[in-house]
Design a protein that fits this description.
alpha+beta
Length: about 160
Amino acid sequence: MNHSDRITIECRINGMAFQLSVSPGMPLSELLREQGLLSVKHGCCVGECGACTVLIDGTPIDSCLYLAVWAAGKEIRTLEGEQQAGRLSPVQKAYAESGAVQCGFCTPGLIMATTAMLAKPRSQPLTVLEIRRGLAGNLCRCTGYQMILQAVQACEKQE
């Protein structure tokens, strides 16, 4: 592929405007990592593990399956954009305090999926089953998931 095959897109990443040159088949995960956003992990690269989960217009998406060209005009959030004024987001803080962080490989994707799940309007706290369903696309090999459930429940108590 030569340089003329590239497409220029405009999008917002973690609140900042970007104009980026992408190849038509480039996964969004690759583009984000090229921008230095290393929280976006290359896990399975087939949409099974959730390690590359980012929010696109508030929806959790496996960025390994999402083409970078589709990001044109979109708002993308990665873990790097969750801190405000150097302070952890409530979800990041809950994960750290509950011990839901072990090796850390899956943590960015889990935090982004949790952030999106907690942002949905609801009248009652999420049940354990709803939390499990909400995070079903994010695999973790280290924690056994109980601490992750506790982190999500701790976030709800803070709301």
